[in-house]
Write a structure and sequence with these properties.
Blueprint (H helix, E strand, L loop, with lengths): L6 E5 L6 E6 L1 H12 L3 H6 L1 H13 L4 H10 L6 E6 L8 H13 L69 E3 L6 H6 L7 E3 L11 E3 L4 H6 L2 E3 L1
Parallel strand pairs: 2-3
Antiparallel strand pairs: 1-2, 4-7, 5-6
């Protein structure tokens, strides 16, 4: 595993395929000033500001962080990483983490527009009680085996999910399973039913008023989306 100043890089304790990237305090401290130059409204309305944040982050690692992340997600033997501050301090609030997520995403590619939020990213709260049609917001419902991006026309190559804050919560952690570790993958991938077109739609809250058709499995999809979320 390569070494990058200011960053701790380890294999995840649950899977050697998942890489854990921790940003040291020095990196976080040096991001405060450039991140404060833009508020969230500027990021949402001016796309170039998002790339400015991304450059600020990558410059602190001599452009090694972007190289590392892109090598991980494009390598079949890995395909997934978990990244975040090594230590959560008073300097790190929800706005800072949105900006950090923005910087990380834009070192990988250009995000798809999110129709639900009307922005380049979506945020939602998981609450004790929720009346929405999205089970992702419901605290006591399992996040069953699924792949996001199935119901949009945009090609979804990778997903970034960020937990901004957690209060009065026990348990509920997300389990991530690499596609190659899924015991049913080969059987279902080689089953002819998995290659037939299915109609994909979304709940009303997603604000997607069309449906798309594509198979559950395809060569492209199998090799691009290298992890499943349980």
């Amino acid at each position: 595993m390569q070494k990058i100043t200011g960053i701790d890089i380890q294999k995840h304790d649950k899977s050697n395929r998942i890489i854990k990237i921790s940003l040291e305090n020095d990196i976080i401290d040096k991001l405060i000033f450039p991140f404060n130059k833009f508020d969230l409204t500027a990021l949402e309305l001016k796309p170039f500001t998002r790339f400015t944040l991304a450059k600020s982050l990558d410059d602190l690692t001599n452009n090694k962080l972007s190289e590392l992340m892109n090598s991980i997600i494009r390598d079949r033997s890995t395909g997934c990483f978990i990244i975040g501050p090594k230590n959560i301090t008073a300097k790190i609030n929800d706005t800072f983490l949105v900006k950090l997520s923005t910087a990380i995403a834009h070192l990988i590619g250009v995000p798809n527009h999110d129709a639900m939020a009307g922005k380049y990213y979506a945020r939602f709260h998981v609450k004790h009680e929720d009346s929405s049609d999205s089970y992702l917001r419901k605290a006591y419902r399992n996040m069953d085996l699924h792949t996001d991006g199935t119901y949009v026309k945009d090609v979804t190559d990778w997903l970034i999910m960020t937990k901004i804050d957690e209060q009065n919560v026990e348990g509920g952690e997300t389990a991530m399973l690499h596609l190659d570790d899924w015991e049913h993958c080969d059987d279902l991938y080689n089953d002819p039913v998995g290659r037939q077109n299915f109609v994909w739609g979304s709940p009303k809250s997603k604000n997607i008023d069309y449906k798309v058709e594509h198979p559950v499995f395809s060569f492209f999809g199998l090799y691009q989306n290298n992890f499943l979320i349980l």
